[in-house]
């Protein structure tokens, strides 16, 4: 079993390094060739061209900036890819993944899409989750070597499922971070150091709120009583933010959403 990693940015380097450290024969390629030097030092084979890199591999992993780059890298080597497994872990939409799977199928390539729910420093740890979808047969064949990256979860044969779940989880992360940065800015207006506020109050608070999520799962309706209570809190956050000079644009839309979901007033 031989593998190639195309794209050695922060994430591609971490993925290739995990393969090499697991003793898996790994070939690497990157558009800017110097990024392959450290991996060559660890024992990876450095390919001069994408075609050379693909020729060496049973499994071809592509990890670049976006799907435009994926196409730019792969289209010239479509013939060489035939008969191999392509695992694309580049961030994209579910539609992007489905289109690439069709392209792969038309060239005799087995396609697996991946969503990496970890930062590069987390690659190789069991708590790092990698989402997969697409060819079940190809995933099963490579599941053990891919375990070098973290814990794999196969979501289904629709190639778009990994991207859909990846983007949903990233959306949750961005929302949480946006709220956290807003909170830090509010506390900062009274000179509270961001590090102290984050460690002492923010992180424990967010942990305790995460525990509530299973109770809220699937429940999108808000009772009128609850809505009024939440509205008071959101109004106070918005007005305090404005008074303290913190832009309110992250919080104000939540109050508007709550108003949009108000039950219509009963008519006499
Ligand atoms: P980097 O910016 O570190 O690396 C980008 C990579 O894409 C480089 O190898 C770059 O090559 C390559 N690239 C960009 N455009 C082209 C092109 N037109 N042709 C060929 N190669 C190209 O990004 P990351 O490694 O961090 O991210 C890569 C993917 O991994 C992204 O889709 C990202 O969403 C995903 N990911 C990243 C995470 C992270 O925390 N970093 C977490 C989870 C997923 P060059 O070196 O020549 O510029």
Automatic annotation (TrEMBL):
Keyword set, alphabetical order: Oxidoreductase
Keyword Cell division: no
Cited Pfam families: NAD_binding_2, RedAm-like_C
Residues of the NADPH-dependent reductive aminase-like C-terminal domain: 158-261
Keyword Lipid biosynthesis: no
6-phosphogluconate dehydrogenase NADP-binding domain ranges (all copies): 3-150
Gene3D superfamilies: N-(1-d-carboxylethyl)-l-norvaline Dehydrogenase, domain 2 (1.10.1040.10), NAD(P)-binding Rossmann-like Domain (3.40.50.720)
Family as reported in the entry's similarity comment: Belongs to the HIBADH-related family.
Record protein name field: 3-hydroxyisobutyrate dehydrogenase-like beta-hydroxyacid dehydrogenase
């Amino acid at each position: 079993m031989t593998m190639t990693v195309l794209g050695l940015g922060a994430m591609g380097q971490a993925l290739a390094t995990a393969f090499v450290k697991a003793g898996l024969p790994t070939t690497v390629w990157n558009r800017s060739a110097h990024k392959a030097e450290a991996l060559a030092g660890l024992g990876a084979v450095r390919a001069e061209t994408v075609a050379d890199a693909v020729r060496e591999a049973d499994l071809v992993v592509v990890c670049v900036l976006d799907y435009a780059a994926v196409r730019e890298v792969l289209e010239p080597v479509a013939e060489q890819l035939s008969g191999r497994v392509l695992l694309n872990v580049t961030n994209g939409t579910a539609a992007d993944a489905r289109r690439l799977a069709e392209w792969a199928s038309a060239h005799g390539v087995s396609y697996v899409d991946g969503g990496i729910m970890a930062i590069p420093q987390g690659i190789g740890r069991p708590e790092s989750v990698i989402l997969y979808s697409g060819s079940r047969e190809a995933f099963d064949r490579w599941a053990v070597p891919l375990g070098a990256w973290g814990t794999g979860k196969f979501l289904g044969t629709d190639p778009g499922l990994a991207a859909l779940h990846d983007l949903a989880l990233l959306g949750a992360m961005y929302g949480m971070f946006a709220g956290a940065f807003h909170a830090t800015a509010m506390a900062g207006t009274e000179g509270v150091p961001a590090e102290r506020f984050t460690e002492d109050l923010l992180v424990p608070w967010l942990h305790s709120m995460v525990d509530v999520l299973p109770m809220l799962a699937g429940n999108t309706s808000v009772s009128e009583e609850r809505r009024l209570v939440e509205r008071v809190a959101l109004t106070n956050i918005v007005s305090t933010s404005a008074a303290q000079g913190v832009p309110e644009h992250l919080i104000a839309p939540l109050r508007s959403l709550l108003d949009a979901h108000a039950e219509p007033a009963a008519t006499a």
